[in-house]
Amino acid sequence: MLSYFELKKNDTNLQTEVIAGISSFLATAYIIVVNPSILSQAGMPFAAVLTATVLVSFFSSLMMGIYAKNPILVAPGMGLNAFFAFSAVIGLGVPWQVALGAVFWSGILFLLLSAFNIRTLIIRAIPRPLRFAIASGIGLFITLIGFTNAGFIIQNPSTIMGVSTLNPTLITFLAGLLLTAVLLVRNVKGAILIGIVFTTLAAYPLGRWWGTEADPLIVWQGVFAAPDFSLLWELDLVNSLQLSILPVIFAFVFTDMFDSLSTLVGLAEAANLLDEQGQPRNVKQALVTDAVATTLAGLVGSSPGTAYVESAVGIEAGGRTGLTAVVGGLLFLPFLFLAPLLSVVPAIATAPALVLVGAFMVRPIVKIDWLQLDEAIPAFLALVLIPFTHSITQGIIWGFLSWTALKIATGKRKELSPALLVIDAFCVVALVLE
Fold this sequence. Notes:
This is Putative MFS transporter, AGZA family, xanthine/uracil permease. GO terms for molecular function: purine nucleobase transmembrane transporter activity. By secondary structure, this protein is mainly alpha-helical. It has one domain. Helices cover 62% and strands 3% of the residues. The chain has helices spanning 14-28, 31-39, 46-66, 80-91, 96-115, 118-125, 128-149, 168-185, 191-203, 246-271, 283-300, 312-316, 322-332, 339-342, 347-361, 373-389, 392-409, 418-433; strands at 74-76, 153-156, 160-163, 305-307. The longest helix is centred in the middle third of the chain and has 26 residues, at 246-271.
């Protein structure tokens, strides 16, 4: 089995790959708690989403390791879960069963696009500044959700949004945020997970020892329990094909497409995981894995799966083969039986993780040329409309349409590829359908 991963050819060994797999898991494990905390706000049962999250992460990471032979973990994607819960279900009023059907159909579309390499052609047609802006906008959206879940940002009739006054809950969140940030700065492995555990423990006195009027945030329900498979096959395949749901499927396709390809390319370049042509190693197999992860997510009850940029932690630890992903994937499995333990984690405990993950996701913003206004303005619109409208779809649509409009108005029509014009047509259709 070890010879299958060609450890010697990749200048690595079993010990290094195992350590790298553990490191990637620690960097990624926060999704076990964060994904259920987000999707449960859409009315889905926390424990069942946790089970679905583990299943997607386990099977998809194994597939990435064995089939694509890449040291990259796959799990339900941040940003994609936010769109599922806050834009599709809460914002558009789509029942979560129908939204799961949309996830499934987007996964089928991913498979077709990946199998025929159409997906890669589409990505090449999308202007790089818009890619950077969309990734950064999603980061801001996730950060806004984190601050809102913590009660730090609240509604204000005069200013639309405002900041809450100091209270025990807010102080607990700020303490967790500071600790997690310090651990990240000091490069402590598993910093986000440690921050979640610390904030959870600190939240225990709320409503108990501190004499607040609020109900206790943590209700102990035990440690072990059988997995909750109640979300399996709960997707609505028929109603998710209605015309009104097409914009949701469209958004899943676009967002996951940007996320997975940018992650694969970025990690491959950073770790020199390239083939003879200088392209990311086994990129087609990796994209097929990503597509299968999304399809599986719809079937078991989660938002789409995608390659995780946090896999860079394991790659930095020396991981170079698919064995890293196999080790990391296997470590997800025990959490099938720990749902009661993890379900005690309150929203303010995962809020610091959401805020700081958002900080990671805005890194591409520095790659935008802000002095070239015909590109900077569309990028800016995509960047700010995603958090301001609570809609990833709106940010994507208006970013593309404004890009095309400005290029035409400034006599740069030749910079618009036919594929980009097709994307614009889909954007217009999405607006009409919505």
